[in-house]
Description:
With 390 residues, this protein is of the alpha+beta class. The chain is built from seven helices and 28 strands.
Amino acid sequence: MISVDEALSHLFALTSPLDAEDVPLIKAHGRVLAKDVHATRNQPPFTASAMDGYAVDATSIKTGQTYEVIGEAAAGHAWQGQVGPAQAVRIFTGAPLPEGTDHVIIQENVTRAGDTITLDDSANDTPFVRPAGTDFKAGDAIRAPRVLTPSDIALLASMNIATLSVTRRPSVAIIATGDELVQPGETPGPDQIIASNSYGLAALIRQLGADPRLLPIARDTRASLALAFDLAADADLIVTIGGASVGDHDLVGEVAADKGMDRAFYKVAMRPGKPLMAGRIGRTTMIGLPGNPVSAMVCGHVFLAPVIRKMLGLGAQPALRETHALAKPAPANGPREHYMRAHLGPEGVTIFDRQDSALLTVLAASNCLAVRPINDPARNTGDQIDIIRL
Ligand SMILES: Nc1nc2c(c(=O)[nH]1)N[C@H]1C(S)=C(S)[C@@H](COP(=O)(O)OP(=O)(O)OC[C@H]3O[C@@H](n4cnc5c(N)ncnc54)[C@H](O)[C@@H]3O)O[C@H]1N2
Ligand code: MOO
């Protein structure tokens, strides 16, 4: 058995970042920027008013000063001309400041009579202008790689970037295996259960920015599994679920070998997730996850997520860990790294008592995995412990 770190290194060696494709800005949210982007203009492109009021020359401002209002500037409608001493231009938020002005007096601070305004004593020193290029300047960069957020999309739009280069979404084929499985919504026989892992993993894969493809459930026969592998052949990543252990009906390893899998490893010193396997079939990486529902989901967070991030060009990093205090004592750990279902709250980390890898209710109640190193001794309330957020 190899360690979790060794398994991850093997998985990173099996995968490379995918190529890039161009997408319109409206489709770019959540995608990974593949090439640096440079602003094509300054923002604002001119010195702009930040308020509704009157544009004047700042040196003229004093209580009681009067100005003749000689024109109007609105957003999208600059006032052309030169503003002289004792003159002002009516101005609105977003309008370019006219020549000869560098200050906006907000309209609340003047008294207007016809075309004359008089400054109140409440006029202050704040210029209420946004100099050209205060937000960004032409040539300023947004660096790749980066998962594009809604804020990034707004900034890219402002930079006048209509199309951008993003990493292609990995296509991930999911093969659930087992005679006992039916799809959600079907009527199970008395000895059948519902395929849950495939749906949970598909959700995780989509959340990570990849495209999950659910294949029909493969039955516990070589022919059915072989057909599923053939259907998955054009995927970037094949994920099988179940059939990975040592039972007579655990055929995934054998059929993958028939399909030419170059196996990188089988079995990892972790709980849950021991019967994990991985390798390459042609150009496609294959990860065989254990069938127990919680095992499959934990392996999804610990292995699948870092692999997908690497394929997206986000680097080869294990799942992010944080350290928090235990809210409750934890028993000693054994010879496998243990990813314990737990809840992180204001009081700290509470590890659930029930850790059976078939309990999806416990997983759903968890918001993190508490990571216990091999042979970690018993821990007390207040001890620091590593967690991975779910
Ligand atoms: N003698 C041994 N038996 C087992 C060992 C072992 O080392 N020696 N390891 C155990 C561990 S740990 C795990 S994990 C399981 C994993 O076995 P498989 O990957 O072969 O999984 P299956 O036997 O196919 O299924 C296990 C369990 O999970 C259910 N299952 C499978 N697929 C799904 C799915 N898509 N959705 C929901 N549930 C699923 C399946 O019905 C079984 O109940 O092996 C132990 N045995
Ligand atoms: O390792 Mo199994 O994945 O413990 O349930």
